[in-house]
Every structure is written in C-alpha cells, then in structure tokens.
C-alpha cells in the first residue's frame, strides 16, 4: 500500500510529518496565532506560507503531509505545490473527510466546520478531494471518529471505503475527545468480508493527554500505522505557554519546549508518524529538533506529572478560542 512507504523512508526526520490545519484557513484554535500569522490572512498569503512550509519540510526530510476537507484550502494549497513538483515520488499524502468547512474564510465565524459521517458526505467530499489531489492521495481518513459515530456501523459506507482500498487507497480514521480509546477499539473491530477495514489511526496524544496510549499500542500491534496529532496541545506545550516542568527539561536539552514535547511522543514504540502543526518555518525547524532530543528516565518521569484527566483536557481544548 502507498502509505507503507513511510516505513522504509531513510531520511532522518521520517517519523515527523507536517499537518496543514494551522495554515489552510485563517482561523484556528492554536495559541499565539496572531503572532504567527499577523493580520494578512488572505488566500494568497496563506497559500504562499503553506508552500514555504512544504518546501522547508521536504528539504529537512519530512515526507508525510496531512490535510483535510475542513482545513479550509489545505488540499488546494498542497495540490498546487505537488503539481509544481511532479518528479517528487517519495511523498505520502493524507487527507480526511467528515467535516465541511463553513467559515467562509473568516476567523470569527459562528461555526467553522460541520461534522457528518454519512455516506452522502463521503461521496461528495471524496469527489472534491479527488478533483484536487487525484492520484497523489495515498491515505483517506474519517475525520474525528467518536464511539457513537455512524461511520463505525454503516455497512454501506464500509463497502464504499473497501472499494477505494481495493483500488489502492489506504483507508484510516482519526479520533478526538475523551473517549478516544473506545473509538479506536471499536474501529479495530470493523471488517469487510472478514478483513480489517482500517490501516491507519490518527489520534491526539501529548504530555497532557495520554489516555489513548493503550489502544494505540493495540492498533500498532494489529498492524495499523499510528499517526499522532496535536503533539504540542494546540500550543499549550510550546513557548511561552508551556508549563514549568516542561520548560525546565527543555532548558536542560538546550532545545525548545515544542521539540521536547514531540520527543516524548517519539519515545513511544507504537508511534509511527508524529505531526508538526507548525505555522512558520521557524516553528517547523524547532519541531524537527525533536528527532535528536534524548530524554532520560528521570526527565520523562518529571514530565509525566503533567498528565491531565481526559475530560478536563478536552473541556479546556473546547474552550480555546478560534483566532
């Protein structure tokens, strides 16, 4: 399958990918966004910024790029970049369906995205993604599956996803919310003609929110590639917002809090790809230093005290304003 190319990548940062949630649309919930993007958030300004990030990421060894239908114009920006570089055949591209972007390119919309995991939404968004990314798309994920998602029980949807898999597309899912572990285990049980449907899982895991770890280990053992998102907790684990314990360890390593936060994830044996959500090339370079951070047991123990109860973590995340 195309996504398996990541397992054989030889570049030093092959386990770090780039997610485009923060740069595909003018509004998002990351802290410090006003400083990152400034006032000019026109389509062309963010297209240019995205292309600069993609150039920098590729030059530094990143080979997985992650978009979504709900990330504004992220697929469009990525497609433009790929179309200008047709000879790059070592890139793996993932996107997601299940949310529709509704903000109309504003940062202060009342509703930024609408969730729907029905078959009709899949058909519509699959066609939209195909029109932009075509055969450059390697991985298509159901966006933010929760235990009550109809995507876990809709056999007609499963059949259509299996058809796409038979044509060479890797099918995966992402999770969100305090019951990520339950959603992962439910998804692992989904089969079509006796074969597992999903080959990848993308979940939130970071120094504050570790509850999905046992289920992610089970997914890894079942043969799925595990992709980790929100490794710096929407900026809560990056300077200047990081907690004191993280700042202290970062000072010991002479690297940024963000690099240390991502390094904690890279320590997990089940972590296949860890996403950077950088909005600037400076942030990206700092994120990529995670690959050389060597945390000892004492430092990991000191960081373990940062873990929050899942309900509290997701409640606070839900209160983050769209900037």
Give the gist of this structure:
The chain has about 325 residues and is α/β, with parallel strands linked by helices. The protein has helices at about 35, 45-60, 75-85, 120-135, 155-165, 180-190, 215-220, 245-255, 255-265, 280-290, 295-305, 310-320, and strands at about 15-20, 65, 90-95, 100, 115, 140-145, 170-175, 190, 195, 200-205, 225-230, 275.
How would you explain this protein's 3D organization?
Helix content is 38%, strand content 15%. With 323 residues, it is α/β, with parallel strands linked by helices. The strands form three sheets. Strands 1-2-3-6-7-10-11-12 form an eight-stranded parallel barrel, surrounded by six helices. A two-stranded antiparallel sheet has the order 4-5. Strand 8 (191-192) and strand 9 form a beta hairpin. Helix 2 packs across helix 3 (74-83), helix 6 packs parallel to helix 7 (213-221) and helix 8 crosses helix 9. It is globular, with a radius of gyration of 18 Å. Mean pLDDT is 95; it is low at 6-14.
């Amino acid at each position: 399958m195309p996504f398996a190319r990541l397992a054989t990548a030889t570049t030093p940062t092959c386990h770090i990918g780039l997610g485009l949630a923060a740069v595909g649309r003018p509004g998002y919930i990351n802290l410090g966004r006003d400083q990152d993007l400034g006032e000019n958030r026109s389509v062309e300004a963010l297209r240019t910024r995205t292309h600069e990030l993609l150039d920098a990421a590729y030059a530094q060894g990143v080979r997985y790029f992650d978009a979504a239908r709900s990330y504004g114009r992220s697929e469009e920006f990525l497609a433009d970049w790929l179309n200008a570089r047709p000879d790059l055949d070592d890139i793996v591209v993932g996107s997601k369906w299940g949310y529709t972007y509704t903000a109309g390119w504003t940062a202060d919309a009342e509703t930024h995205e609408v969730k729907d995991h029905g078959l009709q939404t899949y058909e519509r968004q699959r066609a939209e993604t195909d029109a932009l990314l075509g055969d450059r798309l390697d991985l298509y994920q159901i966006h933010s599956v929760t235990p009550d998602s109809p995507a876990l029980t809709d056999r007609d949807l499963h059949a259509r996803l299996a058809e796409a898999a038979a044509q060479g597309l890797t099918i995966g899912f992402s999770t969100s919310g305090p019951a990520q572990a339950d959603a992962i285990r439910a998804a692992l049980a989904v089969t079509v003609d006796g074969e597992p449907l999903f080959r990848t899982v993308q979940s939130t895991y970071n120094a504050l929110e570790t509850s999905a770890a046992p289920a992610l280990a089970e997914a890894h053992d079942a043969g799925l590639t595990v992709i980790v998102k929100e490794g710096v907790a929407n900026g809560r684990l990056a300077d200047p917002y990081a907690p004191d314990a993280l700042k202290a360890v970062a000072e010991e390593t002479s690297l940024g809090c963000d690099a240390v936060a991502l390094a904690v994830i890279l320590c997990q044996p089940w972590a296949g790809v860890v996403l950077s959500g950088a909005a600037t090339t400076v942030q990206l370079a700092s994120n990529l230093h995670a690959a050389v951070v060597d945390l000892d047991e004492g430092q990991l123990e000191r960081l373990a005290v940062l873990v929050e109860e899942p309900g509290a973590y997701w409640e606070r995340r839900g209160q983050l304003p769209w900037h």
